Amino acid sequence: MHRFDAAYELFESLVSRLIMIVLGFLTLYALIAAAIELIVDLRLGSEFIEKELLQNTFGSILTVLILMEFTHSVYTSIKNRSVVIEARAIVLIAVIVIARKLILVDFKSASMEEVAAYGGIALALGILFWLLGLGSERRRGATPPP
Q: Of 63, 64, 88, which Cα lies nearest the Cα of 76?
């Protein structure tokens, strides 16, 4: 069984590294696309300040941040020789995704239920992120903040 365990660990390591390479390319592509979008938007001058253009630019930047955070989570799991990505990192990525969605929502056409649902999801994820932080502090023996 030991040989199988070693082979499976090698497989997990290779898959994690492949995922990190793919995410790296996606992040680079998204960064270049966001930079091009920003340059085009800046050429518009004062029209760039329009809400829709700012929303699109911030949406692109947050997409890059989401990809970077996900890539960093995979990198950390490889560095720690653990394929499992920490739950707190996944929750943080979900919070950024919801923040991106809220920035891109057109509040003029969005229903109250839709906005309330996003708010509820953001609140639940924020509480979960905080609780996961408390749990990891307790495991390390630290005193959690009030």
A: 88
Look at residues 32, 30, 34 and name the one whose alpha carbon lies nearest to residue 42.
34
Give me 54's structure tokens: 């700012």
Any idea what DSSP says for residue 109?
T
What DSSP designation does 46 have?
A: G
Cβ within 8 Å of residue 16, ≥6 positions away? 74, 77, 78, 83
pLDDT greater than 60 at residue 142? no
Domain limits, the chain:
2-140
- Are 104 and 59 a contacting pair, CB within 8 Å? yes
pTM given for the model: 0.72
Q: What share of the chain is helix, strand, coil (3-state, %, to 5)?
A: 85, 0, 15
